[in-house]
Design goal:
alpha+beta; 2 helices; elongated; three-stranded antiparallel sheet
Length: 80
């Protein structure tokens, strides 16, 4: 796994582990780098899809600017 565990594969694995442990909620922090120039943040979509593919659905989503000039999203997933 990567240092920040923020790739689609890493988050999918963490979500799978949480589901196997019987968790009913899973929270992921998604990070967009300040170099992102597009309005769409495709890596976020890929990460959300990876988590949903293992049995979760987005329940709540919030985003905020961080102190490094990027944007962070906090996504709450509910088990389906």
């Amino acid at each position: 796994m990567g240092l920040f565990k923020n790739s689609a594969a890493d988050l999918g694995e963490l979500a799978t582990e949480a589901r196997a442990a019987g968790r009913t909620r899973f929270v992921a922090r998604l990070i967009a780098l300040s170099s992102t120039k597009d309005d769409a943040i495709d890596p976020w979509a890929e990460r959300i899809e990876a988590i949903e593919a293992v049995g979760w659905r987005v329940e709540h989503f919030s985003a905020t600017a961080n102190d490094k000039g990027g944007v962070e999203a906090y996504v709450l997933f509910a088990r389906v």
